[in-house]
Automatic annotation (TrEMBL):
Keywords: 2Fe-2S, DNA-binding, Iron, Iron-sulfur, Metal-binding, Transcription, Transcription regulation. Transmembrane segments: none annotated. This is Transcriptional regulator, MerR family. Residues 10-78 form the HTH merR-type domain. One of its GO terms (molecular function) is DNA-binding transcription factor activity. InterPro entries: DNA-bd_dom_put_sf, MerR-type_HTH_dom, MerR_fam, Redox-sen_tscrpt-act_SoxR, Tscrpt_reg_MerR_DNA-bd. The keyword Iron-sulfur applies. Residues 135-162 are annotated as: Disordered. Gene3D superfamilies: 1.10.1660.10. The keyword DNA-binding applies. GO terms for biological process: response to oxidative stress. NCBIfam families: SoxR. Pfam families: MerR (PF00376), MerR-DNA-bind (PF09278).
Length: 162
């Protein structure tokens, strides 16, 4: 029932879900985000152009490698007249996303290594735990709220009002 005719120019949402392997709710979400588009029939049912299958495949693959939907939407919006990504588009976009993935992999590797120090500890100390207090640039100045301690009112010494 959901299998579209081989030469169908348009697909129902059920057919698109069956062919793409993406849940109907996810397809509705993609449409809400402007990633795919449909027209409505007289009976208010969605009909997707057949090339939406390739668009959904593009979205799935990009999302699977960790590209946020926001970036996928930006990439799709750059294509002329909302065109479905071609092989050349995918090649160009995936090359650009590789740098983004490298940054994320570096960040996750650092987090994993930091987490190794926490395993079996549980202190969550702001002094000792790099995950509890990442990028602690003021910690070397001493304990306490360094920014608040460093700010003095006019006429006030470091030890209180003059
Ligand atoms: S929980 Fe103790 S160092 Fe992170």
């Amino acid at each position: 029932m959901l299998k579209p005719p081989f030469d169908a120019a348009e697909l129902t949402v059920g057919q698109l879900a069956a062919r793409s392997g993406v849940a109907v709710t996810a397809l509705h979400f993609y449409e809400d985000k402007g990633l795919i588009h449909s027209r409505r029939t007289a009976g208010n049912q969605r009909r997707y152009p057949r090339e939406t299958l390739r668009r959904v495949a593009f979205i799935r693959v990009a999302h699977r490698v960790g590209i946020p939907l926001r970036m996928v939407a930006e990439a799709l919006a750059e294509l002329p007249e909302g065109r479905t990504p071609t092989r050349a588009d995918w090649s160009r976009l995936s090359a650009g996303w590789r740098a983004e993935l490298d940054v994320r992999i570096d960040r996750l590797t650092r987090l994993r290594d930091d987490l190794s120090d926490c395993i079996g500890c549980g202190c969550l100390s702001v002094d000792r735990c790099v995950l509890s207090n990442p990028d602690d640039r003021l910690g070397d100045e001493g304990a306490g709220p360094r920014r608040l301690l460093g700010e003095r009112l006019p006429g006030e010494s470091r030890h209180g009002p003059a």
